[in-house]
Every structure is written in C-alpha cells, then in structure tokens.
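PROTEIN DATA CARD
Card holder: Probable membrane transporter protein
Chain length: 248
Origin: Chitinophaga silvatica
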Amino acid sequence: MVITELCILFFIVALAYSAAGFGGGSSYLAILALWGIDFQLMKSTALLCNVAVVTGGVYHFYKGGHLPMKKAWQLSLASVPLAFVGGYIPLKQATFFLILGIALTIAALAMCYRFFFEKEEIIVPREKNSTWIYSSIGGAIGLLSGMTGIGGGIYLSPVLKLGQYDTAKNIAGLSSFFILVNSIAGLAGQAIKHPIAFDWKFTAPLLVSVVIGGQLGARLSARVLKPRYVAGATALLILYAGVRMLIK
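Structure generated from the sequence above:
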C-alpha cells in the first residue's frame, strides 16, 4: 500500500516538474521523509529519480534548441566535482536531516516567493554574464546536491532568472542539464564511499513512475501544466517536511 501511494505521488511530481526543467528532488525527499524512509535510501532514490526524469528533459530541450551547451558546461564546471565530493562526505543521520531540513525550508520559501510575488515576464538575456560568479554559485549548489539528493535546479533557476542569464525556456533546459550531471556525480561519490543504498523492490516501481511522468511532462507545454501553480501547491508539503526535520 505504501509503495502504491509513493508511486502515485512520484508520478505527479515528475509530471509537473519535468515541464519546467526540474527533476523534483526536493519533493521526492520531502515525501520520503514524511513516510519515514531510511535516510541513506532517501538520498540515492531521490538522485536516481532525478536522473530518470531529467534525462528525457535534456534530450527534448536540446532537440528543441533550448539547451546552450557552452553555458551548460560553464555552470557545471565547479558543480560536478563538488557534487561528487558532497556524495562522498559521510554524514550522520542527525546532520543529514539538519542540512536537508534547512535546504527544504529554503526551497519552499523560494517556491512561495515565485508563486506569490514573481511576475511572469519575458527574460531578455544580458549580453555579458560573469562566468565565474555563476560557476561558483553552481558549485555551491552542486555540493548541496551531492550531500542531500536535491538536484539543485530549484535553486539555480531563480538565480539565472534574476541575473537575466538567458531566456526562460533556455533556463529550463540549463536547469535540466545541471540536475542531470550533478545527480550522476552525487551518485558516483556515494558509490566510491560505500555501496549505494538501493532496494530494487522499493526503488524500481518509483523509477518506473517518474520515467512515465517525466516523459509525459517533458512533452507537454508549460502552458498546460502551469509549473508556477504546481510550485505553489507543493511548497507547503516541502515546507512542512523541512520544518518538521528541523524541529526533530
């Protein structure tokens, strides 16, 4: 019964987030935490689901001409090795939930800001962007990604929009690529440290659910799914999970 409920929730998250270029890692972690799943299994499951969702998204964004590869690699230059380091760092359960609680709370507040205060407007990319600044920001997000299992797109996207880094569609493609490479690097860091916590009976159905949801979401227009409203709806879930972790 529990796995059925999780599959339905993971499908909905993947369906909604993939259209915006996100993997849904923050929501997967919030759901798994509320269901009391082992923290090591949480990290690997969230990263694997991120990879499953955004792989299709990266392909569709690239095929549609919305993934500038030069910028994608610039953003990932520092993030990939730091995501690997984050996955390798041994964390005690209390430390993990403290970091994750803070990360989820900040993510939820960012989502609330986007829903209530951010205006839908056309982004006109600036001619010049400071590569090292965005690379440094990407590195910090990559480290957090490897440590917690959050892909990082939920943090990167607002920063890129605020800095007018590229068009809205290209930012979605860049976020999708960023999540993919950092999730893989985080998993690699975990694998080097010790065998990845993995349970086929638990994880496989969830992966199937997010693959189906992610493929559907990647093919649907953002106008249909309205990711902004989805963010507003799921922000409360993530905020509740984050605050609950911090209290405990």
